[in-house]
Amino acid sequence: MLKPVRIKRFIQYLFLCCCLAVPNLALANFDFNANCLKAYQNIFELKLATARQLIANEKKVRPNNSIVPLLENYVDYFYLITTESKTEFERLEANKSARIDQISDDDKTSPYYLYAQAEINLQWALIRGRYGAYLTAAREINRANGMLQDNSKKFPGFHLNGKGLGFINAVIGALPDGFLKSTLSTFGLRGNLQQGLSMLDKLAENLPKSTYEPFYEETVFYYAYVLSDVAKSPQAYAKTMKYTARIADSSLLKSYLQAYVCTRNGHNDEAIEILNNRPTGAYYQAFPYLDYLMGIAKLNKLDYSASASFDRFLQTNKGVNYIKDANLHLGWIALLKGDDAGYNAYAAKAKSSGYTYQERDKQALNDANAPVPNKTLLKARLLFDGAYLTKAAELLNSTNADDYTSPKDKAEYYYRLGRINDDLGKDELALANYQNAINVGKNLKYYYAAKAAIQMGKIYEKSNPAKAKASFNTAIGMKNHEYESSIEAEAKQGLKRLGN
Fold this sequence. Notes:
Mean pLDDT: 93
Strand content: under 5%
Structural class: mainly alpha
Shape: globular
Helix content: over 70%
């Protein structure tokens, strides 16, 4: 097996050869030369300081190279993702217009002319979306989509167009009803999740065999996110691990992608191992979120040393996201250790500190405002999230529905049993428990009943389309509960899969 250093040298050599063989990749002042390639590679290893220095050198030697503003935008994008800082976002967003201006004054016959502008628009849209600035984000997505569509017509052999188009198609195709979706629809953008997934999968398969191999890691970055978070695909883990395997271990972004997808898809111990072995050093961009992720993974196996990871995250994090959720998890640790006062203190912090831009923070605020969680149900929830299904089943099977007095706890009990049996492949038990969760929880503000209907639909998809359709419609028919828009969007995706 080639060592990572040799792979990188081989990629660099191959790319330079390809640029000579395919001259339209480096026309006029769009010069993706060896120095720019090195900066790009450092960006995707999250060695942002090194990338900045290489870009500064390029700027001195070739001040008119319009690949430079694109690379500068990549640096800002990943800096903002890793810091989660709204203050830094507001400081850096002024850079966008100057970069677009430089590129738009350059060679219109280059495939990078529209592509680079589209990438910058899409990156800023994604950052804005993290802070709820949906109107401007919608305009930038529309602009990026139009540019990439035009570029595909002008340069059908320029495969990088498919990266942005695939991502846009997938994300818009899965958007829940709301302001962003309705705004994008006024621009004529509706998206198609399956088409977007197909485009990204095709790129991930074929880029290593083409002259565009250096852009492979970026494609996998977007594809892994879409698989796990947008499509919630059962193939998310397998495909992410497959496609990230060929990325050098010196990439911190690789560690992030793998650990994130592992925690989201039931490979919790593997996530902990990846995070423990992630590359470290002064060259890498600080990434406090990885401590938060480690805390999540450890607590999912009821390892209370997770508190150290959450504390480290809260101490080093300069951003606005996951603060509520980190505090809530610290509260759960206190509660499970028998410290009720500690739980109340952390629940109060979850209510008062941080923001609700991220779904996890919204959920944390809901949980903090809800009654104190039942310890058995909380343990089962955490073990299920870590895919420790046998332990979770044993825990819940040691109790019964009558042990839970409140309708909320009873609905959650049935829902958790349903999810556990579902993942264990015990469909009949799962369906019975889901139906009980619906019966008990359909008029409550909690999400258990509606989500149970979604899960029933997914089981019935395999053998009974009529019942699957009825289940998805049951989920849509439930109103005034937590996560209503996202659950309804998931139900509509199910109906779409059934051809309805």
